[in-house]
Specification:
Number of strands of chain A: 4
Strand order of the largest sheet of chain A: 1-4
Helix content of chain B: 25-40%
Helix content of chain A: over 70%
Order of helices and strands of chain A: HHHHHEEEHHHEHHHHH
Structural class of chain B: alpha/beta
Number of strands of chain B: 11
CATH superfamily of the largest domain in chain B: P-loop containing nucleotide triphosphate hydrolases
CATH architecture of the largest domain in chain B: 3-Layer(aba) Sandwich
Structural class of chain A: mainly alpha
Oligomer: heterodimer
Shape of chain B: globular
Shape of chain A: globular
Radius of gyration of chain A: 20 Å
Strand content of chain A: under 5%
Strand content of chain B: 15-25%
Strand order of the largest sheet of chain B: 7-8-9-4-10-11
Distance between the termini of chain B: 37 Å
Order of helices and strands of chain B: EEEEHEEHEHHHHEHEHEEHH
Radius of gyration of chain B: 19 Å
CATH class of the largest domain in chain B: Alpha Beta
Distance between the termini of chain A: 8 Å
Number of helices of chain B: 10
Chain lengths: 336, 250
């Protein structure tokens, strides 16, 4: 957050977030098992897509292979838990750290690439990881059958969806807070500067390569942690989940919600996930739906759903003639 | 302060800069002029680390810096502006200056992510300092505006102040007056003097001869990649080679 903002301004921005949080906390009172599980899905997707946003929205590097990190998180955590019998939360963090290392290793050569060259190499990476899952050495990933692991538990009691809801919500808050601090700091400014003009960023003392690797590794951590959360929510994963279309789904959610913002990924995940859920019966047409959503964003909503809402809000505020100039409003919204 | 020794840069068969040796003295304004295509910007790119010279040395305060990366050279205390403006257009004006301060801020990835008190303090000071820098060029009313919305002349000023924010010892200005109106040029003249008072040495490429002859203490003339002449503005103005290069023919 902008440190030279007055207390009043800060409070004004914090209020909607708190209201949103209280409303979310009330959800388990009204919802039963199935919608609660959907909420949990939305929560770990929010972490995943927010991670992708750090990479794509802030530092301007595209990745079409992020399902690979999602897979590393899910399988890594499951394998560590099954074979080493470590507590689940610990295995989640270890798996995410492994993915971070892999992400950093991939980013060292990939940081030299831009645009379609980068997207091609990330597609290749995603494909490699998928092939390793289905033809694993010693069949440790269960190949085409997938892999089982235990669900999250506390003191021997397995989590109900209601318990998991609160755990996932806590994780969302932690990860979003970390993202918020990161993007509003020297590191975040360096990411954005690289996105805007990597040439000038280099000239201004930013080690472009190093920061690109950092962004990649950070997004891998977010992705993998989300993957591990998914694994221990359902207790079983199948390699089909980690194909290209999962990467495309993440990117669709991000673009549809709006890149380079705090709320964009949240709105994107909720809207796309609810849409997919309501079109369950038309599963063959999922790709079609993603295509339509992406087209809408590219043609009509360059800032995504969040950007569109922000513009409407700024427009209304201007029309009503109260408050300050439009640019001020849009900037404020961006910071929030 | 900055010395180059027979710096040569070749692009394929073309020699863009051919054995150019200059000596930039501290606390003065040195001009680098020459017709279009003389290799001025290439020479700048070579000092600031964008290109590595094929041969020759670049010495900054007694240290060889050729082959260093731009971000390393920025840390050593050389900053620059660009001929075609290279600002971070979707960031605010103040954020652009904050990016300029990048190499002087101590926080790192982890302190940023965990938002520890020392990082918060540093950020607060950095924002205040960035605001002071904007005041230095009179851009403080636009601090919160998107950079892309600034007028051309103001963007030039912002580029200069973004460079200054890294507390450099030497600033390279690539055509700072391009696209400025006559009023803005007068203000630029005065700004250059104030930059000098901060203890920052200036090396600039400029096509506006009136400005160059007015403010520069020393001038180097490049033509077709070679150093053609060097001296005070008067000496350069009266040098027959320079007149030939600019006006052509006998």
């Amino acid at each position: 957050m902008n440190p030279d903002m007055s207390k009043q301004e800060k409070r004004k921005k914090l209020l909607p977030v708190l209201v949103l949080l209280v409303l979310t906390l009330l959800l388990p009172v009204f919802l039963n098992e199935y919608p609660l599980m959907l909420c949990c899905t939305i929560f770990y997707y929010i972490i995943a897509v927010s991670g992708l946003d750090i990479l794509f929205g802030y530092s301007g590097q595209i990745s079409l292979g992020h399902a690979a990190f999602y897979a590393i998180g899910a399988y890594g955590s499951a394998l560590l838990h099954n074979h080493l019998h470590l507590p689940i939360f610990v295995t989640m963090i270890i798996a995410a750290c492994i993915a971070t290392g892999v992400g950093a290793l991939l980013a060292v050569p990939a940081s030299k690439l831009v645009f379609h060259f980068l997207s091609l190499s990330t597609i290749a990476f995603g494909e490699i990881v998928y092939q390793l899952l289905v033809h694993s050495p010693g069949n440790i990933t269960g190949d085409f059958k997938g892999i089982n692991s235990t669900q999250m538990a506390f003191c021997g009691q397995p989590f109900s969806y209601r318990n998991y809801f609160f755990f996932a919500l806590l994780m969302v808050i932690i990860f979003l807070l970390a993202k918020f601090f990161l993007v509003n700091s020297k590191t975040g400014r360096a990411f954005t500067a690289i996105r805007e003009n990597s040439h000038a960023a280099n000239g201004m003392g930013i080690n472009v390569r190093r920061y690109k690797v950092m962004a990649f590794a950070t997004s891998a951590f977010y992705m993998a942690f989300a993957g591990a959360m998914y694994m221990h929510l359902v207790g079983y994963v199948h390699p089909d989940t980690f194909q290209k279309k999962q990467s495309v789904l993440f990117l669709t959610m991000l673009l549809f919600g709006g890149t380079g913002t705090m709320f964009g990924p949240i709105i994107g995940v909720i809207s796309v996930e609810l849409l997919i859920e309501s079109l369950r019966s038309l599963q063959e047409f999922q790709g079609f739906v993603y295509g339509i959503l992406l087209l809408i964003v590219i043609v009509a909503l360059p800032g995504g759903l969040y950007g569109g809402l922000r513009d409407i809000y700024a427009y209304c505020k201007r029309k009503l003639g109260k408050g300050d100039s439009g640019s001020e409003v849009s900037k404020n919204a961006e910071n929030g | 302060m900055l010395k180059t020794d027979k710096v040569t840069i070749k692009f394929g068969g073309l020699t863009a800069v051919n054995e150019v040796s200059v000596h930039i003295k501290p606390n003065q304004i040195t001009g680098l002029i020459g017709p279009n295509g003389a290799g001025k910007t290439t020479f700048f790119n070579c000092i600031s680390g964008v290109y590595t010279p094929n041969s020759g040395k670049v010495m900054f305060q007694g240290k060889e810096i050729q082959g260093s990366k731009p971000y390393q050279i920025n840390k050593l205390g050389i900053t620059r502006t660009y001929q075609n403006i290279n600002l971070f257009r979707k960031m605010t004006v103040q954020e652009n200056v904050l990016v300029g301060m990048h190499s002087r801020l101590k926080s790192n990835y982890l302190t940023d992510m965990f938002h520890i008190p020392s990082q918060q303090r540093e950020e607060k000071e950095a924002y205040a300092k960035a605001y002071e820098w904007l005041k230095f060029v009179g851009l403080e009313p636009y601090a919160k505006d998107q950079t892309g919305s600034l007028s051309y002349g103001k963007q030039r000023l912002l580029e200069i102040v973004r460079g200054l924010a890294s507390d450099p010892k030497l600033i390279l200005l690539d055509e700072p007056a391009a696209g400025m109106n006559s009023q803005e040029k007068l203000e630029l003249d005065e700004l250059l003097q104030r930059i000098l008072k901060l203890g920052v040495t200036i090396l600039m490429v400029e096509h506006d001869m009136k400005l160059v002859m007015n403010v520069c203490h020393e001038i180097y003339v490049l033509a077709e990649g070679k150093l053609l002449a060097h001296g005070t503005p008067e000496e350069v103005q009266n040098n027959p080679d320079v007149i030939t290069a600019y006006l052509g023919g006998e």
